[in-house]
Amino acid sequence: MEKVRNLYIMNAIFAVLIAAADILYIYNPNQDYIYKTIASGLFLVLGVLNFILLFKDFKTKNLKLYALFNVIALIFCFLGDVLLIDYFIVGAILFGLGHVFFIISFSFLQKFNIKDIVAGLIIFAICLCVILLVPDFDFGELFPVIIVYAFIISFMLGKSITNLLFSTKYSNTLLALISLGALLFFLSDLMLVLGRFTDLTTDFGTLCLAFYYPAQFVLAYSILFMNQSEIASVKKMSFIRKVYCRIFQICFRIILPLLPYREPKLLDSYQDMCKVLKDKNINSAVLVTSKDILDLKLADELIDTCKKENIDLHIFSEVLPNPTISQVESAKEFYLKNNASAIIALGGGSAIDCAKAMGARIVKPKKSIQKMKGLLKVRKRLPTFIAIPTTAGTGSETTLAAVITDEKANFKFPINDFSLIPHYAILDYKLTLNLPKGLTATTGMDALTHAIEAYIGRSTTKYTRRMSEEASKLIVENLYECYTNPKNAEARKNMLLASFKAGNAFTRSYVGYVHAIAHSLGGQYHVAHGLANAKILPVMLEIYGEKVYKKLGKLAKICKLADENETNKVACEKFIAYIKNLNKNMGIEEGFKEIKAEDIEHLAKNADSEANPLYPVPKLFSKEELEEIYKKLKV
């Protein structure tokens, strides 16, 4: 880090010296061009120094060749700059060779291809139009030289632009610097031609230098970014796809306040629930739950209350962890067979998600569940829907999402629609008192993941930030207490509230790659969702790195995991360490033994498909980069 910092300082000093020499030349243009030569020479020295000092740090042969040919190009441009005024043709030839070497250097970052040819020809065609149609130009015998030069500089600019738009291997910072340098060179040459071959009165010579010196500096400076430009030869997300993802997310964020988000109305008891049903003239409902819930007698009070209040309760108890398409279809047929008019979901996220998908199929009988994948594919009010969570974690009782497994394809997919938000919810802590320790731990970590991913994403609002902060604080204060002292009623109440608040946060601000990866593992290997989130969360936060320092650091301080006077980086690291220790203390091991090397590409494809462009993550990753993350998670 100290070496890089010193190089930045050196480049800044050179920039000041170059600017000073340039200014001296502009105000003393007749002193044998000594200041101009000094300024141009400084670029060459800077490029050579950057190349020599960083050569050992370049990770691949292509990086070394880019830097080498960049320096060679700078040498020819220096010679061309010195000779151009007195020996125009010689100077132009040397400059042209310099640009050719720049094109060669760019080609080491991405091989020359048809896109480069098309881009170069388009820019060259524009140049020809300017040259042929502007009446003030008078090239005389130099016309062929100008045409060849225009051809070369057009392809230099075209190549740099296609690298920026389509290269997926190198950092956008490096590619943007190269494109900026090529553009400035192009504008500098345009000013030179206008100044030398027209009678226009504008001081094109000064404008030429105003573009030329920054162009030289930017391309010399780009060498600094070579040692951080390639990440293990992994194909990165293309610039165009990144722009598309961010534009999609920005548009969604803009319309966020206009969308029909709502919270379920909280009911205090089963008696209140029955009163709501009676007020709506509903006397028949389907209870979507699991056999485990029935065996644990968690549904007894609900069943007894409905019986006393003369509500016919038809029990569908076939829900399993990670509800499948076939379970949803069975639930739908069960609902229709019993002529029910309301849906009651009792259980964890699986039961509530199954009930949501069942409701969607009831109101959209002609649309398969697979076709509801994604965003706003239901758009029709569900039957009266009451959610009663028996775990504190999924937040499904307040979200617009249902996650369903395609058992034939081993693929989990989300359905997101405002109509899936339950109309009512009952938060009864007594249902969570007998939860097994393992389930308390993993569902609690699920809630923490919801809160954190909603908070560090790029589509937060004042409301979702507040929900995430309150949820995170409650979880930090109560989750381990629930784990070690399961009968603590106050801690159980707080965890249910935290889950509800985290659900409110992520249903508006969405989640991120942690969930996308967890869903893929659940679909392929039936890994419990909360367990997957718990294991992935600290790994993903470390990979995000500095992109989450500010937000996660602030959240750490709110949760009293870091002191107010500590840097965001330190606070962020403390939060990640807390998550790792909490996992360890609750018996959650690191990594996944289930992941098979031959499945990684398929898993990454599914995660990429789910997350991009919808999830407003702190940092975008390509499918290939996601594959590397799966490799980190594999044990």
Automatic annotation (TrEMBL):
Organism domain of life: Bacteria
Keyword Membrane: yes
Annotated Alcohol dehydrogenase iron-type/glycerol dehydrogenase GldA domain residues: 270-428
Gene Ontology MF terms in the entry: alcohol dehydrogenase (NAD+) activity; metal ion binding
Chief localization: membrane
UniProt-listed Gene3D superfamilies: 3.40.50.1970, Dehydroquinate synthase-like - alpha domain (1.20.1090.10)
Transmembrane segments: 7-27, 33-53, 65-83, 89-109, 116-134, 146-166, 173-198, 204-223, 243-261
Record-level GO cellular component terms: membrane
Coiled coil feature spans: none
Keywords tagged on the record: Membrane, NAD, Oxidoreductase, Transmembrane, Transmembrane helix
Domain Fe-containing alcohol dehydrogenase-like C-terminal as annotated: residue spans: 440-632
Topology with respect to the bilayer: Multi-pass membrane protein
Pfam families, alphabetized: ADH_Fe_C, Fe-ADH, YhhN
Annotated PANTHER family: ALCOHOL DEHYDROGENASE (PTHR11496), ALCOHOL DEHYDROGENASE 4 (PTHR11496:SF102)
Similarity comment: Belongs to the TMEM86 family.
Name of the protein in question: Iron-containing alcohol dehydrogenase
